[in-house]
Design brief:
By secondary structure, this protein is mainly α. The chain has 11 helices and no strands.
Length: 330
């Protein structure tokens, strides 16, 4: 395999992780509409700085007064995402030019190109549809899917030892895949919670507003597609609906914690996977703690962003473990 592809994939993994973290920071600091247009910002390639530019921006978007702090955060996120897109194009181009690249790898690289283009469209729709929850959640999941595919390309573009792993290692493939699916569902629930501003719907732990069974509105909470033209910044759901979302995410967190913790304990018994199991246990305990602190401390920005980073690191750890169970593992 072309080592240039491997180096590009490693760099892309790092940048994809940074894009995810920066995107969380933008979203959680309420800067998602810091630039009300796309791909520029108030009609500029960067963002308004001079007094005349700011005045023109405010005249062009009277319903969205310019806020420098939000605008530059949003544009830096877009620049970094654009850099990631160029890297993905480079990986695909290099892959197709290398005669030693497998057909499966080439197809995966092209799939990533299609995904990253769709991810850019989701970024545009996030702005043009004014933080529509389903789009915001899809944008988060698209970013993590891109991150996952880049990890797969990175794993499969390096030199490999084709020795088959032991039976004990191969048997863990199913439980790891199950854990990835459960974690992905929980991440989606987290994205839905954030997109609907439901993170603080229950301000106490373990009860919710001092009750074990508070008023909820599940049918309204999980309506995926709502009308176009509404500004969803700050959320539009009533409190019982947000409570329903929050409690679902909270129950999902407990299930995910138990599944991943059980998996980590099983991995301890297998020498080749023991280090990964130890890392998984550390991350899942940290992630669960960050989730509790989000509620107890009323969603401090640093903690909330770290919670998003923890989800990405958990996913990366599980994918790394899955790679080790394959007969193609290093």
């Amino acid at each position: 395999m072309n080592q240039t592809v491997h180096r590009l994939a490693k760099l892309a993994v790092v940048i994809a992780f940074c894009v995810i973290i920066l995107g969380a920071w933008v979203r959680l600091s309420h800067a998602g509409l810091g630039c009300p247009d796309w791909p520029g910002c108030y009609g500029q390639l960067t963002w308004p700085e001079a007094a005349q530019e700011i005045e023109s921006a405010n005249q062009a978007f009277p319903d969205r007064p310019f806020e420098a702090g939000k605008a530059w955060r949003e544009m830096v996120h877009r620049y970094l995402a654009g850099t990631l897109m160029l890297l993905v194009f480079a990986i695909a181009w290099k892959s197709w030019r290398d005669p030693h690249t497998t057909r499966r790898f080439k197809l995966m690289a092209m799939a990533l190109v299609i995904l990253i283009i769709f991810q850019a469209l989701l970024g545009m729709w996030t702005v043009t549809l004014k933080l529509k929850p389903i789009i915001v959640m899809a944008h988060l999941l698209g970013g993590l899917t891109s991150f996952s595919l880049l990890l797969w390309l990175m794993f499969n573009s390096r030199w490999r030892n084709l020795d088959k792993p032991s039976i004990a290692v191969r048997r863990m493939r199913g439980p790891i895949i199950t854990a990835i699916i459960i974690l992905s569902i929980q991440i989606a629930l987290g994205g839905w919670t954030s997109a609907n501003y439901a993170a603080l719907a229950c301000p106490d732990v373990p009860m919710c507003m001092g009750q074990w069974l508070p008023e909820t509105n599940f049918p309204e909470a999980f309506v995926l597609w709502r009308e176009i033209g509404v500004n969803y910044e700050g959320g539009v759901l009533d409190h019982p609906s947000r409570v329903a979302i929050h409690l679902t995410h909270r129950v999902g967190a407990i299930v995910t914690f138990l599944v991943l913790l059980t998996l980590a304990l099983r991995l301890f018994k297998i020498p080749k996977l023991r280090a990964g199991g130890q890392l998984l246990m550390l991350l899942v305990i940290t992630q669960f703690t960050l989730g509790v602190l989000n509620v107890v401390l009323f969603l401090p920005l640093v903690n909330a962003v770290a919670h998003n980073a923890g989800a990405a690191l958990l996913l990366a750890t599980l994918l790394g473990l899955l790679n080790k169970t394959s007969s193609r593992a290093v």
